Each structure stands twice: as structure tokens, then as C-alpha cells.
Amino acid sequence: MDTKLLFKQVYDYIMTRIDRGELKAHDKLPSIRLLASELQIHRLTVFRAYQMLKQDGKAYVREKSGYYVSTDDPEQELYEQTAIRPIEAPSHLKNYLSEIQRIPVVYQFSQSLIDPSLLPNLYLSEYVKKVFDIYPKLMGTYSSVQGDEELRDVLCRYMVRQLRVHLTANNLLITTGAQQAIDLLSRLFIRPMDAILVERPTYSAALDIFRQQGARFLDVEISPEGYDLDKVEMLMREYKPRFFYMNPTFHNPTGYTVPSAQRKHLVELAERYRCLLIEDDVFHDMYFEVPPPKPVFAYDTEGWVVYIRSFSKYVAPGLRICAVIGQPSVIEPLITAKSLADNGSPLVNQKIFLHYFQSERMQQHLEKLRIALQIRRDIMEEELASTGWTWVTPNGGLNLWIKLPDGLTVGTIRSESIRQSISFVPGTLFDPLREMQGWIRLSYSFVNEACLRDGTRRLADIAKRFK
């Protein structure tokens, strides 16, 4: 583990507590010895973090007493103590990807979503009527917290057929999208400064969720060949991480797919070192020519994999249907966490999805969608061919992971791109170390073909200008 990264994470941990209001101006910070013992790290690491806080003006030292939280403005502090002011929300919550996606642009390459015109909107409207005919009192009741039993039964049978695993409907929890599943799992398993394994790069919203819970990242590089399993084993053995969050199939943002042999070995490592694997599999059905390998979950016989399988992204993202599959030891506390979050996903959404999912139209839609997405991938690659940028062609998913030439940074092209109404996601957002300055993610799935070609040509022109 990089000790430089570790002391910065301790720094971030203290700053998060300050932002939340848990530590106020002139509050004493935990002693170096106490915090090191609590977080199970070396005292020198805490000392370096405290020194950094002091250098940045976030903390000060009282002789023979310890470190205390600074105040930036004594007059402001006096005002805060005496004035009657409205309650302000804490500022520690961050979702950097969402902030980028909210920028209004014509050429939207930051949204890893499917163009609504490619979705079965007309067919879905028929199923809405059908569902209300079958369940006339649908709007008058809640779903169970675990999810509609009829839907869980259907998805269970689907998984058993597809993966050849033993499951019952009680092994499934329906969540409001995959992101809620990640959030609930993080609340369940992460305590402040707990070590977790994450890919480098990985899904940026997951990183923001884990940071919010105070996680300490142990990064594992992902490449077109998969992971360095020797490093994975070393990290599991030495740091005993709470879990390994992974996205091994048409990985977001890279598009890479981890080979089958590694998937099986990962389960063996998880069992040996008692490290939970959280497998996020939202693009499984979005392959172009050859189906992907079986999920890591398919190799698990001892309950060391929690499987997140999202279905709604390629049907109707607004339905927000995701299944979390695992052993009762995980599902039961997740049900409690879900009950506290929203008391169950909307029953209407679940019933609409249920009846469409079982139809022949669903399979026909998927086949056409794969062709349409492959065409869009090819358009983007064709228009970028002259830029000198490099990438690995993905065999599925919705994104290209682009390496910019040496000397060219995201900041150099981003302002001009926004000026021309083009958005993309900087690689630093996907990096747990926040260092990947020469990478960007482009999503080819959200805009129509004409818009995609025009916007990518504009981006290629910008690239040539800054060669």
C-alpha cells in the first residue's frame, strides 16, 4: 500500500468529519496514538496527515495538548456564535459525475445511457395498460421491501437457467437501480477508514459513495488482460479489506472484460482470505458479437460474492430495476437498510418490467439494440481515427476509454469542448488516486447517429488543433 496515499486518506477522513460538522472550530482532534490504534495504521502516517492539516490551515497545535480544528475567520466565528441563521446543509456530499452530466450540451458524451429512441417506448406503453388491467389496485399499495415476489421468482428462474446456479427468490433483493445497491452495501460494510479493494480506474459514483462512508482505497489496476492477481492476493492477505468492488464485464469506464480463468481464481482468493466480492454487472447483456464469460458469481459456492445485476438500463432506465443476489447473511441486513432508505422500490415499476421482461419482444429488442450500439461504437472510432488518441475497442458496453497523447491533458481540451457543446468525463473521476490526467471516457450510446458523428468530428478537430 502506498503510504503517500494512506496519509492523504487520513487527511480526507478528518476533513470529511469537519465538513459534516462532527468536528467544529477549536475541537481537539483525536491523539495521534489513539487514531493510529483506531484505524490500525502507523502513528507516523497520522502524524503526516496532521502536519498536512496544519500546513493547510485546517488545524493548529497547542503546546503539550495536541491538534485542534482551526477557524478560517475569527470574525465569522463570532458571527456564527451570536447570529440567528437558517440551517445550512452540510457540503461534504459529492457526486462529480452527476455534476458533469448536468452541464447542458448538444453532444452529450458523458452520459453512459442509451439513446431513448433505441428503447421500446411504444411496446412499454402497451404493457403499462396491461399491468393496470391485471392489477387494478396497483397504485394503492406498496411493494414488499425485498421486492415484488412475482418479479423475484421470474428473475430467480432466469438466473438459474442462465448461470446454472442454485438460487431461490429469497436470495434476491430488488433495488432502485444499481447505484442504490452500491450505496446500501457501502452503508452495511464500511466503517470509517476501513480498507476496500477497488479497480483503477472504476465507476466514479461508486468511489464517491465509498468516500462518503470514509473508506480507505487499495487500488488494483485493470487491463485488457484483467487484474494482477498476485497483487490482489497480497492486498487481501496484508490488509484484510472489507470487500473488493469490481465491474469485470464490459467494465466502466474501460470496456475491458476479465477472462474466465481469473474469475474462478478470484473466488478462490475470496474464500481463502475471507474477502467479500461485490460484482457490479450492469452491461452483461450489452455484448456485440460474442456473449461475455459467466459472472464471477457463477463460480461461487460458499457465499463470498454479492452480485449486482441491473436490467432496466437497456429497457427503460426510468424504471430503475436492479437485483442484488447473495446469501441470506447479506440479503437480510440489506433488506433492513433498504427499509430505512425507501421502504421498497415502486411496485408499478416492478410489475411493468416483469411483464415486458417475460415477452418475446424483449429478446427481439435486445438483438436490435446490440446492432445499433455496435454501429455507434464504430462511428465514434472511425471519427477519432485521425486524432492520435489510443484505446482498446470494447466488445460490449457503452463507452470508449481514451488515452490522450503524452503532453496533452484533459484541461487543455475540456474548455474548448464545452464551448463547442461537447461533454465527456475526465479520467481523474474514475481514479481512486485522482491522478489519471491523460485519460477521458466517451460514451457513444446516448445521442443519435448523426449527432454522434458530428460531435465526434468536432472533438477530433479540437484534438488536431492541440497536437
Give a quick rundown of the structure.
With 467 residues, the chain is α/β, with parallel strands linked by helices. It is 44% helix and 14% strand. The longest helix has 25 residues, at 360-384.
Task: Give a verbal description of the structure.
The protein is of the alpha/beta class and 467 residues long. Helices cover 44% and strands 14% of the residues. It has 16 helices and 15 strands. It has helices at 3-20, 32-39, 43-55, 74-82, 96-101, 121-134, 149-163, 178-189, 204-212, 229-239, 260-273, 328-341, 347-357, 360-384, 410-419, 449-465; strands at residues 59-62, 66-69, 107-108, 172-176, 195-200, 216-223, 226-227, 243-246, 276-281, 305-310, 321-325, 399-403, 422-423, 425-426, 439-443. Helix 6 (121-134) crosses helix 13 (347-357) and helix 10 (229-239) packs parallel to helix 11 (260-273). The protein is globular, with a radius of gyration of 24 Å.
